[in-house]
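for the writeup, i need someone to sanity check this before i put it in the appendix. the sequnce is what the collaborator sent (i think, or maybe the updated version? ugh). structure was predicted straight from it, no edits. if anything looks off just tell me and ill rerun, i have time this weekend
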Amino acid sequence: MLRTSQSDSQSSQDVTYINVRDRIIEPTTEIEKQSSFLIDMVYTSDYRTTGVLEDFQLFIQLSIGLLNKKLITTYTSILTNPLQFLHQLLSNPFDSLLTQDFTLFKSAIGYSRVRIDRRTTKDLVTRSGYEYECHSVPTDDGYIVHLHRIPNPSSFNITYFQHGALDNCATWVLHGPHDGLAFKAREEGARVTRACIYGHHLESEGCDVFLGNFRGNCPREVEGWRKKQCYWEEVHLEGYAYRDLCAFIRRIREIKRDDLVRIYGELGIKCSKDQLERDLDKRLKITFVGHSLGGLTLFMYLIKKREQSLPHYINNAILLSPAGFHHETSAYLKFYNWLGASILPFLSHSISFPTYLIELIQKVHQDLITIPATRDLCSLLAQSLLGGKRTFSNQAVSNPHPIWKSALIMNSVFKFGLSTNLCKQFYQMFGQEKNIIPQLESKKGWTDWAISKVWKTVLKVDEKISDVDLSEGYGLIDIPISLFISMDDDLIKPTDVIKHYHNLKSNEKDVEVHLFEGFSHIDFTYASHHLIIEEFLKVLRQSFQ
């Protein structure tokens, strides 16, 4: 049955959502579309970064002040003691005219370097009043990825957030404690849970929150036995899903096992390792929250584990505009990925920016959003690529695209290292009607290449690696999945995202869709709209019941 839900009076004024079960989704025609749909969106004020033009303005002002001060000092010296001034000028003119008060210029340069928003995930969490942990997690193939935690040790309701491409885990905490999805999950993700442990009654509220950072994000670390020069060779979809995700889930269970041991120790409970493992399996509930690429890796992870007859330890999933099906892809995205898949391999193995260049980009970003004309233009360009409701003229100035709202968003985008392998895989996925995961050919030396050539030519054997059709494995998925879809998403079209629903439903799986209007692809993480937050918390609480 198709149901249109409206929460409060505001939902009928801007963005509405539709909960759809057991039927094909069609856009509602009953909702009045208004151009001011983002008027009540809440953003965190983080004016911490100055633009290049602002720094140049400061430099000019200090130069004028220095010149005026020098003129006044010189004029005073000539009037009071002209002979001493003439002697000083002739003896050391450079020191007299230039080096004095040069600290003003140094302060201008220092000011330019200081006025940059360098807040890390740790800063965003701790300054919001929460405890913070960061765990370095080794993977099976020698990478070291990082798992961030907003701890709630007494809760065994786990919310594990996984970011998408060109992003990192800071996206979940960027908006602070009032609007960040990770903070909301920490406080309100699960209602008060009462548990009886061997006769002891315990209570917990909220969730234990974990934020995963895929390989390719800073800092890029590897174990000692792996060559750092070959870092980007394994940065691709399989590395994310089969290595990083496995390592994150394994570490989450290790952390919660330690929490359970601590609780048992405080209560004076003694049990064997096998009993401890059974208790952990009984009490631990993990809800996976993935955006875009993060959602695609979950499908890959679940199907792989089920094919291997291994436990995956995930109980529920909330996927925000997940990737996978890309039959209808915009020309902009095809062109950019063509550059990354065809041109980039001749230049480099990846696109990764040094810190000083990212800081410069942040400053240019600040200039663009402070000038109304450029902010309007850039908002239109972002909407053309990422989607969202179109706004023009003064409305575009007051309601720019979310990507122009914060300098930290630019920091998240450019700290994600984009490998050529990932570009190749996404480019091959475009235009496919199925959820195809392209397989990358391993690099060979001249000897291996010659042997394979003979093998193909003489023996007529085709060594081409067949791609994986992930759609055929949807019947193996055994957890409830909630899909969040925006009808105005231009990066991953809603007609493509809904194919996940149809494939799961055709295999009689537990899946539901929450449909929104007016949001772009990144609005699920960066917009922090009250409708998304309310619906997210409702689904999250249901997953822990």
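The chain has 20 helices and 17 strands. Confidence is low (pLDDT under 50) at residues 1-45, 391-398.
thx in advance!!
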